[in-house]
Amino acid sequence: MVVATEEMAVYCFDTLVAHYSGEQPPLPAFEEGVHPLFVTWKKATNGSEPRLRGCIGTLEPRQIVSGFKDYALTSALRDRRFSPIQSKELAYLECTVSILTEYEPALNYLDWEVGKHGLIIEFTDPDYNVRRSATYLPEVAAHEGWTILETIDSLMRKAGYNGTITESLRNKIRVTRYQSTLYTMHYGEYAAYVKKNRGEINAAPLVNGSK
């Protein structure tokens, strides 16, 4: 099984740095594979708890080299919940890469474990008779301190449902649970990796705001 690695997070940072410098990123230092994946960017300033700046990926299997390259930029620049990440923010970023595995249907909306499973929910909005869906990665519910019920209700809101959430509606949700491996890297760790393995810190000018 392919697991998320340091090199995958490095490649995402490389891709974002190259976007700001107008260059091509170095070749990735990990092998190709075909898996669902996500890229998450968070920003921490003055020792504060990192705050989400972008998180986008795919629930369908795809080539992971091109996948991480595409979603590193999409999550940083085109997550509609946030303004695009600017080069001056690089020094405050952390990147988490996730490889999704072990998809399986849940028996019902209660059939999963907080901290272990990610969720995909699908249901019909009774007010508009349209299908709605949303996902949370495995770490989200535990990080937020949510119960199973709170997570499901939050996911329904994320899917765009604004009506009354009833037990009857919850029981009509189709739930797919999955697991993931992930790797998180702070910018300082990325800079140290580049210095150690390439003999230079290729992102330093961008951090100083020259781009």
Structure, explained:
With 211 residues, this protein is an alpha+beta fold. Strand 1 (34-43) and strand 2 (51-63) form a beta hairpin. The chain has helices at 6-21, 64-77, 138-144, 148-158, 167-170, 187-198, 204-207, and strands spanning 34-43, 51-63, 93-105, 118-125, 130-136, 174-186. Mean pLDDT is 94; it is low at 203-211. Strands 2-1-3-6-4-5 form a six-stranded antiparallel β-sheet. The longest helix has 16 residues, at 6-21. The chain has seven helices and six strands, in the order H-E-E-H-E-E-E-H-H-H-E-H-H.
Summarize the amount of helix as a percent range: 25-40%
- Structural class of the helix and strand makeup? alpha+beta
Proportion of strand residues: 25-35%
Strand adjacency order, main sheet: 2-1-3-6-4-5
Present the secondary structure layout.
Layout: H1 6-21, E1 34-43, E2 51-63, H2 64-77, E3 93-105, E4 118-125, E5 130-136, H3 138-144, H4 148-158, H5 167-170, E6 174-186, H6 187-198, H7 204-207
Antiparallel strand pairs: 1-2, 1-3, 3-6, 4-5, 4-6
Please tag this protein with its features.
elongated, 211 residues, disordered C terminus
Give a short overview.
The chain is of the alpha+beta class and 211 residues long. It contains seven helices and six strands; from the N terminus they run αββαβββαααβαα.
